[in-house]
Every structure is written in structure tokens, then in C-alpha cells.
Amino acid sequence: MSAFMGATPLQVVAWTVPMAVGGLILSVTGGFILHKVSGTVLMIISCLGYVGSGLLFAIIPLGGNYWAYVFPAMICGTIAIDISFNLANIFITTTMPKAKQGLAGALIYCTMHMGIAVMLGIAGIVETQTKYLETFKSHYDSLRTLLTEKDFDAFSNGRAFHL
């Protein structure tokens, strides 16, 4: 955000505050709605949050507006993360016998962290393979490397929603 929106490091920190506040609110209210709403519906809402966040970050123009792009993306990201995390923990661990619930929790965390590591590796490959754009010495082309990673994020989220 600092590279293509011109934000200072302190502004970037302030811009991510909605994720923390939204996380606190959703973690508390999530417990009240998980038994009232179908898990499938909640997972669809979560996937739409992932897709919305990825798309909003992918379409930010150079010097884009915080309120039009970053704030809604942070809200969508918070919805996506909190709902899917709660669903995974509650529904997977409750389907296991009490003696194996710790194992189910460990499986969730291992799967999550392995997925993060693999996808960060792929995002790094996308970034290094698009570095050639910096040779054009155009400000837009050098920033296109950052935006290509966001395009990959949006595509991955859309594909996961499709599955």
C-alpha cells in the first residue's frame, strides 16, 4: 500500500485497524450465530469475503482512495478469516470424539500453516517472474509487479470459491 498508494508506514498500520476491531466483534458474535445459520451458508459468506478482499486489492489504482478500496477490503478480509476459522475449529473438532479433538485441532493448524507456506511460495514465484517489468523504468510498470501478486490472490480466491 505504501508503494502504490503513497501511504506512510504509520498510515498502513492505521489502515489495518479495521481488521482487529472487526475480528473482536466477529469472534464474539460468531458464537451466537454459528448454531442458527447453516455452515454451508456461512462458508459461502466467508468465500465471498475472500473474493471481495482479493478483488478490491487487485483493482486499486495508483494513488487509490483508502475508503473506496482498502477499508472495504479489510472488512471483507475480516469476515472471511473469522468465519472460516471459527467454522473449521468448531465443526471439525465437534465431529471427532472427545479423545481426538486435540488431534483435530492440530490438523486444522497444520493444514492452515502449510497452505500459507505453499501459497506464499507461489506468490514469491509470481513476483520474481514479473520483476522484468522494472526494466522498463516506468513507474506504473515497476508497480505492476505488486499488482500482479494481488491479481494472483484474486484468482486464487475466486477459484477456491468455485470449488
Which terms would index this structure?
single chain; 163 residues; mainly alpha; globular; transmembrane helix; MFS_trans_sf; Major facilitator superfamily (MFS) profile domain-containing protein; transmembrane; membrane
Topology (elements, then pairings):
Elements: H1 2-5, H2 9-15, H3 17-33, H4 39-58, H5 66-95, H6 101-129, H7 139-162
Helix pairs in contact: 3-5, 4-5, 4-7, 5-6, 6-7
Keywords: Membrane, Transmembrane, Transmembrane helix
Subcellular location: Membrane
Protein name: Major facilitator superfamily (MFS) profile domain-containing protein
In short:
By secondary structure, this protein is mainly alpha-helical.
Question: How would you describe this protein?
Answer:
It contains seven helices and no strands. It has helices at 2-5, 9-15, 17-33, 39-58, 66-95, 101-129, 139-162. The longest helix is centred in the middle third of the chain and has 30 residues, at 66-95. Helices cover 80% and strands 0% of the residues. The mean pLDDT is 83. It has one domain. The chain is mainly alpha-helical.
